[in-house]
Amino acid sequence: LEVAVAVRELITSYRELEEAGTMLPVLELKLKYIRSAKYDDLLTLVTEIREWPETRITFHHEIYNKQGVLLNVGHVTLVFVDIARQRPLKMPQELAEYFLPHFTDQQSTP
What we know:
Helix content is about 20%, strand content about 35%. It is built from three helices and seven strands. About 5% of the residues are buried.
């Protein structure tokens, strides 16, 4: 699932999500550098959502060079927050409806 494309299909921008009353602050970020990339290297970023998002959404990342060598792994966890109340909330329904068909039987869904 190409996350950025999926979100862009649903909303025009992150600003639009905030205007609807939801923000996504970073809760956790972890990176592991395995090998270095060189200037002007063409890189491929693979992003997956492995667990069904409830109040948090975790993006797992892998970065590869042109030869397919893994350079970096990591994840970032964001939390859905109601801007007005400053409290966590469940993923907005529009996002849930979009993500649901992209989850397999092996992945946990609602």
